[in-house]
Design goal:
94 residues; 2 helices; 46% helix
């Protein structure tokens, strides 16, 4: 993402911090809340249909995988998005 490795960490962290600051501001503006899902949450490894956690899909090159539990076929990014939404709703109700 950023080629200069000496500055990469500070530039990336400032950019994301500013983005989240603006996102939280807009959420309050429109009367919404932001729920932060933990960074290490295994969203792309967990089946969004049955909840089975598949450790074999840790490799980022695996884009589409089949759940051994329910045999549902998942796109990595779509599945992760569904799991992040579910986790956010779970945090909201807690």
């Amino acid at each position: 993402m950023i080629r200069n490795h000496k500055l990469a960490k500070s530039i990336a962290s400032v950019s994301w911090a500013k983005f989240f600051e603006m996102l939280e501001y807009k959420a309050v503006w429109y009367g919404n809340e932001i729920r932060k899902v933990p960074t290490m949450y295994p969203s792309s490894q967990t089946c969004s249909s049955c909840g089975y956690r598949n450790p074999l899909v840790k490799n980022l090159r695996i884009r589409i995988w089949e759940c051994p539990g329910c045999h549902a076929v998942h796109d990595r990014d779509t599945n992760a998005g569904i799991n992040i939404l579910k986790k956010g709703l779970q945090l909201q109700s807690a």
